[in-house]
Queue: 3 jobs
Job 1
Amino acid sequence: MQSVTQRLGVTTECVKEGFQNQVLRKGCKNLGLEVDQVPRNSSEAHYCGSCYYGCRTADKQGTDVTWLVDAVNLGAVIITGCKAERLLFTKNGRKREKRCVGVLARSINEKIPRKFEIEAKVTISACGSLLTPPLLISSGLRNKQIGKNLHLHPSLMVWGYFSDQGPTSQFEGKSYEGGLITSAHKVAPDQMSNSMPRALIETPALGPAACAALFCPWESGRDIKRRMLRYSRTANLFVMVRDKGSGEVRSEQRISYGLSAEDRENMTAGLLTARFWAVYCTAHQMGSCRMGRRENEGAVDENGESWEAEGLFVCDGSVLPSAVGVNPMITIQSTAYCIAKKLAESLKNGEFNI
């Protein structure tokens, strides 16, 4: 984890907070609630208005300016504009039922009908928790844990308008400016203060289109126009819980999921009262190909390798065994880093030579 945070330049310091985080911090202060500094992968003085569309200055240390650059510098080739259709297998696995020998892919450009195969000693699926299970299932893998145990960090969103005139003018800037998430409040449990918080309150990154889709039930064109004219001074907050309930994903664009009673209670505790309009969302997806000590407990082993096919690894948030309760970026990248380091050693030792 230390290697990952160093590569991403993670810091908890923030020279100037954006409009939404100012509102969150001030509100918590007025209510006597604690506010935590949130670690982020950008410099202390970074104040950007487009990070959720792509940081214009590359100050935000995302994968496009860190890990992918490292990979290319070491000889990796990145093929864009294509989609993996299915994994390729043979039946001569030495320690598994079968062996993965590559992937069949196609161009997303409909004018290019030809498909292509990529042969490899090792194949890694890093499609995320919503797309890795469909790829594995459509390729013929049958492990019952694939697609199950899906956690979504369910969230409720609320918002409020703060005019740039009068008392609320103390909040500087606009909703899309500043660091994405620099402040957070952990909703304390009812009894033991050392137990996990019931919920986490943070600020989301919402562009105009997302806001237009999420703002309240539709009333009229005039109403939505009025709301969108207030977009730049509308503060959005979300309450996120570490879900105990789980769902399942087996095909693209279709999931089944249910909140547990405890999840609903924790959400209500985060909002203090849920008796107003709010929108259910998912903050992060994880767990749908979880690690397990045995084949009946997980889709992959502790090294991220499929229980059914040797040479096939999963290296994304789907391998996490449960919801983590906070932004999982560092956890996912640290897990991927460990899997990759172990895999590199195995390749160097010739363990996957055909």
Job 2
Amino acid sequence: MKQIYLHIGHGKTGTSAFQALMAQSQKMLLSAGILYKEHPSFSNAIRSRISSGNIDPSDTNDWFDTQVLATVRNNQNYDKYVFSCENAFHYMDSVYAALDNSKDNFNLHVILAVRNPGDMLSSEYHQLVKRDGLFISYEAFLERTSYRCKHAFRALEIIEQLESKEISFSLLNFSNLGYAITRRISEIIGIDTLVDTHRFTTMRVNRSMSVSELQALVLVNRLYGKFAGTKLSDALVNSLPDIDSDPLLPSASSSKKIADEMKPIIHAINRRLPLSSPLVVTSDVEIESNLICPLDDSQVAIIKGAISELSQSEDRAWRAKRSSFLMKTANKILEKESLGVRVAFRLMKLAQHLQPSSQPIREKTRRLRRMIRR
């Protein structure tokens, strides 16, 4: 019987690191009868960069049948099939429907990663600043969530569904395991002796932000919006993967509200976790930082205008330098080559494109055009 492993979980629970391990080990795993199929972000995973896994559960309502089971049906030469995507955490109904209706013969084992609710709220704030253009303070974000970690509630829902449907699963606490979670997942799948997990116990893939970076992103989001902030965060994460990230500590009053809201959920999840690795409200490593960007619209306009003017000034200087070089090159061609008029004309057209208001460049271009027409 075919064995399917489905790896899902909270955001920021080492999923990108595991996906990097699988992508980089794919050929060796294939020879061992284990399929981890390629996907659009496969090249990112190979380079240990941000990836989205090898399925897209948001694509269709029947993704488990059309992506997971279809892969098994079309690739019968393997014994194990591994699928990883943290986003599947939000689309599990497709799994339950497929198990109820499918005639395929397979075993399914779900690997679900969870983390401390306080840690997850901090991580969610990081992610919203990085990907969604958020620029409100952490305290304002916590108030918006009603001090409830939706991922923990969702995790308990999934656990109860898996238990009721008698679906085999492993529950892992990332807050306890840290980056060793990659090796633990490999042990569950049975590939820990085949792949090199050692370097992934220290390697950061898709890290969170430092406080300084987060403050810069908050400002960029406020000034330029989501697209600019996302571009900046990706550049920081991919270019500087080893910078330490800084989880955020709520105020004392917010911490108490989180604890009051989350204790029943933590207790319920802990009944399924080993006694040695329980969830707690929050880890002890957070630092206090209430990021905020209190700029009104007039301040934003002035700052954007100043930055834009500086950028345009640098751009004008670059264009002037390049057009001057093109003009000098055109003159040298005309001096040394009697047949170089057309080449010189093309160079002058480029110079005119760079500096369309330059009178000397316009006149030179006109003279060369007349020479060509003779």
Job 3
Amino acid sequence: SDKVMFYADSGCSSHLCTESIGRYLFNIEPVNVQISVAKQGEKLHATKRGSLRVKWNGKPMVLLNVLLCKELPYNLLSVSKMERAGLKIVFEKEKVEVLSSNGLVLRGDLQGNMYTVLLDVVEQHTAAAVSEPDMHRRMGHSSVHPTKELCDVCMKGKQTRTPYVDLPESKKPKRILEVVSSDLKGPLTPATFDSFRYYVTFTCHFSNFTHIYLLRSKDEAFEKFVEYEATVTSRFLTRISRLRVDNGGEYRSEQFQRFCREKGIEMEFNISRNPSQNGKSERLNRTIMSMARCLVMDSPLGKEFWGEAVRTAVYLINRLPTKALPDGKTPAEVWYGRPVDLSNIRVFGCRAYAHVSKEDRKGSLDPVSR
């Protein structure tokens, strides 16, 4: 044990210790506590809280919830905290005494203008003579017991991928079709009632507007991109500048890449095992499937109608506000350049009647709708 000086302080609400005796604390937990001091506008910052085993005149005791402050020059005993614990503190004849119902707990002396108490600080047996790296290992490589050295085990066992950050405004697309991302989903089971097993999406990053096409096989993705490219470029009289895709074989084919070269479209492939680089399409697929699943479950239709459900989901997603667009706009509003009309939307799978034209009716008494 070491003898350590504490000052009895009637102004602090918690026991405080300096960094030099922080190694004696046990049951430590990290904290972030701001402590006001007498000097106006200044604060102390406590980083840890723990218990401290001490002795006075051979009597063992434990100080609970002691805060460790690195900037603190002195150790402080909180008078108010001891009083809240049922102890009586008496200042008289240049002495301070802490009393319990069983008698004297500790005594200190007046030194200058402060009452001081000399305590023996006892080190925990489990932590005795244990180096910082060893304690870090004993405590399961916990950050509560850090080591200043680089821990190879922590690097191998805890390292995570650096999170992706949003693109700065300067790198975001400035016009429709400047950047388009695509992703293919499937095979999905069961196949649709008309034998489709896949779908592919194309999303314009500027407007967030998405087109979806159902596929019977993955190699149809090229045919659908050719159709998409012709449709959107004739609509806006502008070209697709960049196409962002994963490393699927449907995009890596020579036919697909040759078409993009001829059209002046730069293909941007994900780095292997980094799907977040095409995060817009990856997240969109999750949203489409979640909505389609709910649409099918909430309808009387079977799972083989998932093709109609995903197309409906994309139609609805295009008409929902997204935080990627300013002022609560929807992708369809940016794409079409006018407010969207939701009055034609009905519950997916509800009963609908189609008018039968006069030419298709056999007689005057035949139904006019079906």
